[in-house]
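Reply to dn_fold:

You asked what the input looked like. This is it:
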Amino acid sequence: MEAAQLLQQLRLGDEKAFETIFRQHYPMLCRFAGRFLNDAESAEEAVQEVMVKVWEKREQLEIATSLKSYLFGAVHKHCLNWIKHDQVKARYRQETLATAPLAEAPDGFASELEQQISRAIQKLPEERRKVFLLSREEGLKYREIADKLGISIKTVENQMGKALRFLREELQDYLVWVGVGLYLLLKNLG
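and this is what came back:
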């Protein structure tokens, strides 16, 4: 089926047309995104997010060029936004660490951190939580998790990446204290 026909079928909600578009373009879009993000997992997630938007907005798609050019442009824009977002988060972390008081962590910090980690893990969607716990608590490799849950290794990798990003965001206030603790430890050793 030609690109114009696939696009027309996509606009009509044809899942097979979407799947064909996805399969045809996904590998090269991931390689393209990887050039910007320098991380295969982030590149795959960025491409998946673009493809989800394509599906969600399929009826309103305005493509003046080719479908391929449109997808590359959308991935490029998404990657640039991703990079900007990461830069903002990094700047925030640096500013927070720079302004954090250099003091010992409060009493009970370790148990509070453990509770916050448990709460954050419970906030994960059920399948993502299963993947995370099988990896971190049971020490299973991605292949073993994939076999146990009947999913692909790529899905395991994707779910772990999303889980770790979510946990970093949920626990960012505590990560400042961990960073301060490491700073103090290194300062005292030197």
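The chain has nine helices and no strands.
Hope that clears it up.
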